[in-house]
Amino acid sequence: MNKYIIGLVFFALCIIVACTDSSKPAAKEGDSCAKPVQDPNDVKPMALMMRSMANNCDSMRLKIMQGVVVDSMQYPLPPFWGAEPTDSSVLEQLFFDNANQIQQAYRTLMQNKDHQKENYTAVIQECIHCHSSYCSGPLRRIKKLPLDYKPE
Ligand code: HEC
């Protein structure tokens, strides 16, 4: 009888522990990427490309501020629009339209060497533009990327 009760208590404890563990806060509704707890072994290709773009922008920003010309050999734009996303519901017309716009802005940045400050700023505007619709988590980071460039 005693054994039976101890067994029952143990069983109940296990259930309590298991339940508390799975009650972590869920990802915010409508945020198509920024999960509070992301499995580091399951980062999707699109997210990886986004990370490398953000790192490239950090580095380009420093160079452009020093007046160094950046080029697409050193900083290629990864084709994130063809990569697997964390949340496949982002793959809709508006997303691809935004992806086209950043490709154009990026091309202008790389081709027009005389206005890199202005054109870099336009690229970052496209990051912000798409992220206002799709994945607002990284916006805080992205908003640190623009140059304090003012058109003359
Ligand atoms: C066309 C839309 C679009 C554009 C343009 C865009 N992003 Fe993203 N970004 C996304 C989506 C969607 C995700 C979520 C990807 C995923 O989780 O698979 C994302 C994720 C990210 C992340 C988080 C990656 C992670 O660690 O999980 C960062 C950082 C980021 N983007 C930075 C940028 C920067 C910097 C730019 C501009 C150079 C940019 N993004 C342009 C849609 C866009």
- From the alpha carbons, calculate the radius of gyration and give it in angstroms: 23 Å
Q: Estimate percent helicity.
A: 40-55%
Bound molecules: heme C
Query: What is the structural class?
Result: mainly alpha
Order of helices and strands: HHHHH
Please summarize the sheet with the most strands. none
Strand content: under 5%
Spatial separation of the terminal alpha carbons: 87 Å
Mean pLDDT: 83
- Please report the number of helical segments: 5
Total DSSP E strands = 0
- Poorly predicted segments: 19-30
What would you say this structure looks like, in words?
The chain has 152 residues and is an all-alpha fold. The chain has a domain at 42-142. It is 54% helix and 0% strand. It is built from five helices and no strands. It has helices at 2-21, 45-65, 93-111, 116-133, 139-142. Helix 2 packs antiparallel against helix 4 and helix 3 runs antiparallel to helix 4. The longest helix is centred in the middle third of the chain and has 21 residues, at 45-65. It is elongated and about 85 Å long. The model is unreliable at 19-30 (pLDDT under 50). Residues 32-33, 44, 46-47, 50-51, 53-54, 57, 85-86, 90, 95, 98-99, 102, 123, 126-127, 130-131, 134-135, 138, 141-142 line the site of heme C (HEC). Heme C is lined by residues 32-33, 44, 46-47, 50-51, 53-54, 57, 85-86, 90, 95, 98-99, 102, 123, 126-127, 130-131, 134-135, 138, 141-142.
